[in-house]
Amino acid sequence: MPNTPPADPSGRRTEVHVAGVTKSFALRSHTVAALRGVDLHIDEPGFYAIMGSSGSGKTTLLHLLSGLDRPDAGTIEVAGQRIDMLSETGLTRYRRHRIGVVFQQFNLIPTLTAIENVALPGVLDRQPARVGQARAAELLEALGLADRRHHRPDAMSGGEQQRVAIARALFFEPAVLFADEPTGNLDSSTSDQMWRVLHDVVERFRLTLLMVTHEPSAAIHCRSVFLLRDGRITGTFDVGTSDAAELASRAQQLGW
Ligand SMILES: Nc1ncnc2c1ncn2[C@@H]1O[C@H](COP(=O)(O)OP(=O)(O)OP(=O)(O)O)[C@@H](O)[C@H]1O
Ligand SMILES: [Mg+2]
User: Fold this and answer.
1) CA 80: distance to chain centroid?
2) How far is the CA of 211 from the centre of ligand 2 (A)?
3) 68 Cβ closer than 6 Å to some ligand 1 atom
4) Distance 176 CA to ligand 2 centre (A)
5) Which of 7, 9, 89, 134 is deepest in the core (most CB within 10 A)?
6) Does 39 score more than 90 pLDDT?
7) How many domains, the chain?
8) Which CATH number do you get for residue 91?
9) Residue 225 clears pLDDT 90, i.e. is over it
10) Is residue 185 helix, strand or coil?
Protein backbone atom coordinates (compact mmCIF):
# COMPACT_ATOMS: atom_id res chain seq x y z
CA MET A 1 0.00 0.00 0.00
CA PRO A 2 1.59 3.37 -0.91
CA ASN A 3 2.33 5.98 1.74
CA THR A 4 1.72 3.63 4.67
CA PRO A 5 3.65 5.07 7.61
CA PRO A 6 6.34 2.73 8.91
CA ALA A 7 5.38 1.07 12.17
CA ASP A 8 7.13 2.81 15.05
CA PRO A 9 6.17 1.95 18.63
CA SER A 10 6.71 5.58 19.69
CA GLY A 11 4.40 6.85 16.92
CA ARG A 12 7.10 9.05 15.35
CA ARG A 13 6.74 9.48 11.61
CA THR A 14 9.89 9.54 9.53
CA GLU A 15 8.54 10.11 6.00
CA VAL A 16 9.33 13.02 3.69
CA HIS A 17 6.99 13.78 0.76
CA VAL A 18 7.59 16.62 -1.67
CA ALA A 19 5.19 16.98 -4.63
CA GLY A 20 5.25 19.51 -7.45
CA VAL A 21 7.28 22.06 -5.49
CA THR A 22 8.33 25.23 -7.29
CA LYS A 23 10.26 28.24 -6.02
CA SER A 24 11.36 31.35 -7.93
CA PHE A 25 13.29 34.41 -6.85
CA ALA A 26 12.38 37.76 -8.37
CA LEU A 27 15.42 39.86 -9.23
CA ARG A 28 15.27 43.40 -10.57
CA SER A 29 15.45 42.48 -14.25
CA HIS A 30 14.28 38.85 -14.28
CA THR A 31 13.08 35.88 -12.25
CA VAL A 32 15.23 32.87 -11.34
CA ALA A 33 13.33 29.58 -11.24
CA ALA A 34 15.35 27.74 -8.58
CA LEU A 35 12.97 24.77 -8.20
CA ARG A 36 10.83 23.76 -11.16
CA GLY A 37 8.60 20.98 -9.85
CA VAL A 38 10.40 18.82 -7.31
CA ASP A 39 8.97 15.39 -6.47
CA LEU A 40 10.71 13.33 -3.81
CA HIS A 41 9.38 10.57 -1.57
CA ILE A 42 11.00 8.87 1.40
CA ASP A 43 8.94 6.24 3.18
CA GLU A 44 11.47 4.38 5.31
CA PRO A 45 13.85 5.79 7.91
CA GLY A 46 17.51 5.80 6.79
CA PHE A 47 20.28 7.94 5.39
CA TYR A 48 19.52 9.65 2.04
CA ALA A 49 21.28 12.21 -0.17
CA ILE A 50 20.16 14.83 -2.63
CA MET A 51 23.09 15.28 -5.00
CA GLY A 52 23.31 18.22 -7.38
CA SER A 53 25.88 20.55 -8.87
CA SER A 54 26.26 24.19 -7.86
CA GLY A 55 23.10 26.18 -8.60
CA SER A 56 20.88 23.08 -8.99
CA GLY A 57 18.66 24.19 -6.09
CA LYS A 58 19.97 22.17 -3.12
CA THR A 59 20.03 24.98 -0.55
CA THR A 60 16.70 26.34 -1.78
CA LEU A 61 15.11 22.90 -1.32
CA LEU A 62 16.71 22.43 2.10
CA HIS A 63 15.35 25.82 3.21
CA LEU A 64 11.85 24.79 2.17
CA LEU A 65 12.13 21.39 3.88
CA SER A 66 13.39 22.95 7.09
CA GLY A 67 10.64 25.59 7.14
CA LEU A 68 12.92 28.62 6.62
CA ASP A 69 11.10 29.56 3.41
CA ARG A 70 7.87 28.60 1.65
CA PRO A 71 7.28 27.08 -1.79
CA ASP A 72 5.43 29.04 -4.50
CA ALA A 73 3.43 25.90 -5.32
CA GLY A 74 3.32 22.22 -4.40
CA THR A 75 3.11 20.34 -1.12
CA ILE A 76 5.70 19.37 1.49
CA GLU A 77 4.99 16.83 4.21
CA VAL A 78 7.68 16.02 6.76
CA ALA A 79 7.33 13.62 9.70
CA GLY A 80 3.59 13.38 9.10
CA GLN A 81 3.00 17.14 9.00
CA ARG A 82 2.08 19.35 6.03
CA ILE A 83 4.43 22.32 6.38
CA ASP A 84 3.75 24.38 3.26
CA MET A 85 0.53 25.69 4.85
CA LEU A 86 1.82 26.39 8.37
CA SER A 87 1.63 29.84 9.99
CA GLU A 88 4.85 31.54 11.14
CA THR A 89 4.26 30.25 14.68
CA GLY A 90 3.59 26.77 13.32
CA LEU A 91 6.82 26.89 11.32
CA THR A 92 8.83 27.99 14.36
CA ARG A 93 7.39 25.10 16.38
CA TYR A 94 8.09 22.71 13.48
CA ARG A 95 11.72 23.84 13.21
CA ARG A 96 12.27 23.56 16.93
CA HIS A 97 10.43 20.32 17.72
CA ARG A 98 9.86 18.17 14.66
CA ILE A 99 13.15 18.34 12.78
CA GLY A 100 16.84 18.88 13.34
CA VAL A 101 19.28 20.65 11.01
CA VAL A 102 23.05 20.14 10.78
CA PHE A 103 25.12 22.70 8.87
CA GLN A 104 28.47 22.59 7.13
CA GLN A 105 29.86 25.30 9.45
CA PHE A 106 28.50 23.66 12.67
CA ASN A 107 26.84 26.99 13.72
CA LEU A 108 27.66 26.64 17.41
CA ILE A 109 27.57 29.66 19.74
CA PRO A 110 31.26 30.42 20.42
CA THR A 111 30.71 31.74 23.95
CA LEU A 112 28.78 28.69 25.14
CA THR A 113 30.25 25.35 26.25
CA ALA A 114 29.34 22.08 24.52
CA ILE A 115 26.62 21.25 27.03
CA GLU A 116 25.19 24.80 26.88
CA ASN A 117 25.10 24.65 23.08
CA VAL A 118 23.27 21.31 23.12
CA ALA A 119 20.82 22.53 25.80
CA LEU A 120 20.06 25.75 23.90
CA PRO A 121 16.85 24.49 22.20
CA GLY A 122 15.44 23.76 25.67
CA VAL A 123 16.39 27.24 26.93
CA LEU A 124 14.69 28.85 23.89
CA ASP A 125 11.64 26.70 24.64
CA ARG A 126 11.65 27.84 28.31
CA GLN A 127 12.20 24.35 29.65
CA PRO A 128 13.48 24.06 33.23
CA ALA A 129 17.30 24.32 33.03
CA ARG A 130 17.74 21.09 35.02
CA VAL A 131 15.75 19.07 32.44
CA GLY A 132 17.64 20.60 29.51
CA GLN A 133 21.04 20.01 31.09
CA ALA A 134 20.19 16.37 31.79
CA ARG A 135 19.03 15.83 28.19
CA ALA A 136 22.14 17.58 26.83
CA ALA A 137 24.43 15.46 29.02
CA GLU A 138 22.71 12.28 27.80
CA LEU A 139 23.16 13.31 24.14
CA LEU A 140 26.81 14.29 24.58
CA GLU A 141 27.40 10.91 26.17
CA ALA A 142 25.65 9.16 23.25
CA LEU A 143 27.92 10.99 20.83
CA GLY A 144 31.08 10.12 22.75
CA LEU A 145 31.64 13.66 24.05
CA ALA A 146 31.01 13.26 27.78
CA ASP A 147 34.53 14.50 28.56
CA ARG A 148 34.16 17.55 26.33
CA ARG A 149 30.99 18.91 27.89
CA HIS A 150 32.60 22.02 29.41
CA HIS A 151 34.71 22.89 26.36
CA ARG A 152 33.90 25.89 24.23
CA PRO A 153 33.84 25.35 20.43
CA ASP A 154 37.32 26.88 19.94
CA ALA A 155 38.73 24.23 22.30
CA MET A 156 37.30 21.36 20.25
CA SER A 157 38.30 19.77 16.94
CA GLY A 158 36.09 20.20 13.86
CA GLY A 159 34.78 16.65 14.25
CA GLU A 160 33.93 17.26 17.91
CA GLN A 161 32.16 20.52 17.07
CA GLN A 162 30.09 18.76 14.42
CA ARG A 163 29.14 16.05 16.94
CA VAL A 164 28.02 18.78 19.37
CA ALA A 165 25.92 20.27 16.54
CA ILE A 166 24.37 16.84 15.88
CA ALA A 167 23.60 16.42 19.59
CA ARG A 168 21.91 19.85 19.58
CA ALA A 169 19.85 18.86 16.51
CA LEU A 170 18.64 15.76 18.41
CA PHE A 171 17.54 17.67 21.52
CA PHE A 172 13.77 17.32 20.96
CA GLU A 173 13.95 13.80 19.49
CA PRO A 174 13.18 14.74 15.89
CA ALA A 175 12.16 11.97 13.50
CA VAL A 176 13.78 13.75 10.54
CA LEU A 177 17.19 15.43 10.31
CA PHE A 178 18.38 17.60 7.43
CA ALA A 179 22.07 18.18 6.76
CA ASP A 180 23.86 20.56 4.42
CA GLU A 181 27.26 19.06 3.43
CA PRO A 182 27.90 17.91 7.04
CA THR A 183 31.51 16.94 6.32
CA GLY A 184 32.28 19.90 4.05
CA ASN A 185 34.54 21.51 6.68
CA LEU A 186 36.27 18.34 7.87
CA ASP A 187 39.44 16.60 6.69
CA SER A 188 39.11 13.16 5.13
CA SER A 189 39.86 11.01 8.17
CA THR A 190 37.53 13.08 10.38
CA SER A 191 34.91 12.83 7.61
CA ASP A 192 35.19 9.04 7.71
CA GLN A 193 34.51 9.11 11.45
CA MET A 194 31.59 11.48 10.87
CA TRP A 195 29.93 9.08 8.40
CA ARG A 196 30.07 6.39 11.11
CA VAL A 197 28.59 8.81 13.66
CA LEU A 198 25.77 9.75 11.29
CA HIS A 199 24.98 6.10 10.48
CA ASP A 200 24.98 5.31 14.18
CA VAL A 201 22.61 8.22 14.90
CA VAL A 202 20.23 7.08 12.11
CA GLU A 203 20.16 3.54 13.53
CA ARG A 204 20.06 4.38 17.20
CA PHE A 205 17.40 7.09 17.01
CA ARG A 206 15.57 5.49 14.03
CA LEU A 207 15.56 8.65 11.94
CA THR A 208 15.37 9.81 8.40
CA LEU A 209 18.53 11.79 7.66
CA LEU A 210 18.42 13.70 4.37
CA MET A 211 21.63 15.40 3.32
CA VAL A 212 22.39 17.68 0.37
CA THR A 213 25.77 17.46 -1.31
CA HIS A 214 27.54 18.03 -4.60
CA GLU A 215 30.10 15.27 -3.91
CA PRO A 216 29.64 11.67 -5.12
CA SER A 217 32.22 10.73 -2.45
CA ALA A 218 29.77 11.98 0.21
CA ALA A 219 26.63 10.53 -1.42
CA ILE A 220 28.06 6.97 -1.42
CA HIS A 221 27.57 6.86 2.35
CA CYS A 222 23.81 6.99 1.87
CA ARG A 223 21.25 4.34 1.12
CA SER A 224 19.66 6.15 -1.85
CA VAL A 225 20.54 9.22 -3.86
CA PHE A 226 18.15 11.69 -5.48
CA LEU A 227 19.72 13.61 -8.35
CA LEU A 228 18.78 17.28 -8.53
CA ARG A 229 19.39 19.07 -11.78
CA ASP A 230 18.14 22.52 -12.81
CA GLY A 231 15.55 22.50 -10.05
CA ARG A 232 14.11 19.03 -10.71
CA ILE A 233 14.77 15.51 -9.43
CA THR A 234 16.01 13.76 -12.57
CA GLY A 235 16.83 10.35 -11.13
CA THR A 236 16.94 8.23 -7.99
CA PHE A 237 19.06 5.22 -7.29
CA ASP A 238 20.16 2.92 -4.52
CA VAL A 239 23.84 3.21 -3.68
CA GLY A 240 24.35 -0.47 -2.79
CA THR A 241 28.03 -1.28 -3.08
CA SER A 242 28.87 1.52 -5.57
CA ASP A 243 32.02 3.52 -5.03
CA ALA A 244 32.24 7.26 -5.79
CA ALA A 245 33.42 6.71 -9.39
CA GLU A 246 30.53 4.32 -10.18
CA LEU A 247 28.07 6.70 -8.57
CA ALA A 248 29.42 9.64 -10.60
CA SER A 249 29.14 7.65 -13.83
CA ARG A 250 25.59 6.51 -13.03
CA ALA A 251 24.71 10.10 -12.26
CA GLN A 252 26.20 11.18 -15.58
CA GLN A 253 24.12 8.59 -17.44
CA LEU A 254 21.05 10.15 -15.82
CA GLY A 255 22.02 13.53 -17.20
CA TRP A 256 23.64 15.00 -14.13
N1 LIG B 1 17.66 34.53 -2.51
C2 LIG B 1 17.89 34.33 -3.81
N3 LIG B 1 17.71 35.34 -4.71
C4 LIG B 1 17.90 35.15 -6.02
N5 LIG B 1 18.32 33.98 -6.56
C6 LIG B 1 18.55 32.96 -5.73
C7 LIG B 1 18.35 33.07 -4.31
N8 LIG B 1 18.66 31.88 -3.74
C9 LIG B 1 19.02 31.05 -4.74
N10 LIG B 1 18.96 31.70 -5.94
C11 LIG B 1 19.25 31.12 -7.26
O12 LIG B 1 18.56 29.87 -7.36
C13 LIG B 1 19.37 28.88 -7.98
C14 LIG B 1 19.58 27.71 -7.00
O15 LIG B 1 20.37 28.17 -5.91
P16 LIG B 1 20.78 27.25 -4.67
O17 LIG B 1 21.49 28.12 -3.71
O18 LIG B 1 19.57 26.52 -4.18
O19 LIG B 1 21.77 26.22 -5.37
P20 LIG B 1 22.75 25.12 -4.70
O21 LIG B 1 22.47 23.84 -5.42
O22 LIG B 1 22.59 25.14 -3.23
O23 LIG B 1 24.19 25.63 -5.14
P24 LIG B 1 25.62 25.53 -4.34
O25 LIG B 1 26.10 24.11 -4.51
O26 LIG B 1 26.49 26.50 -5.09
O27 LIG B 1 25.40 25.90 -2.91
C28 LIG B 1 20.65 29.57 -8.38
O29 LIG B 1 20.52 29.99 -9.72
C30 LIG B 1 20.72 30.76 -7.43
O31 LIG B 1 21.45 31.83 -8.01
MG1 LIG C 1 23.93 25.56 -1.61
Assistant:
1) 16
2) 12
3) no
4) 20
5) 134
6) yes
7) 1
8) 3.40.50.300
9) yes
10) coil
